[in-house]
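Reopening this ticket.

The earlier resolution said the output was attached, but the attachment link was broken on my side. Pasting everything inline this time so it's all in one place.
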Amino acid sequence: MDLRLKDKKALITGSTAGIGYGIARELLKEGAHVIINGRTEERINSAIIQLQDSIPECNVTGCVADLAKEKGKTTEEIEREFFDTVRPTCLIKRFATIEEVATFVTYLVSPLAAANNGAALRVDGGTIPTIL
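Inline output:
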């Protein structure tokens, strides 16, 4: 699907693994120029190689920076600490996968989501400018 993200720029923090990596991969598949971020040059280089191997024509660069003030916990640690089970009201009855979250975020940042995210709402006869 063409989400009209070709040549748009995106900085994805924490994108050498997990959900951030998945979002970077999905944006690259849509033709966006993606700047991935990680704490070490080794992790960034490894992620860039993996992305270029799976998406040969991709436009990806890296930026080394530790943007976290404290070391975070893994989703598994958080799940064990705070959740006994998935809420029974959850429609899919499970936690979403990295790929599912990445695909959803990629759609939300595309121009096609303007009707869903409010970016195309008229205010006093005009529109609200957004950065994309």
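Reporter confirms the inline version is readable. The CA atoms of residues 9 and 33 lie 5 Å apart. The mean pLDDT is 78.
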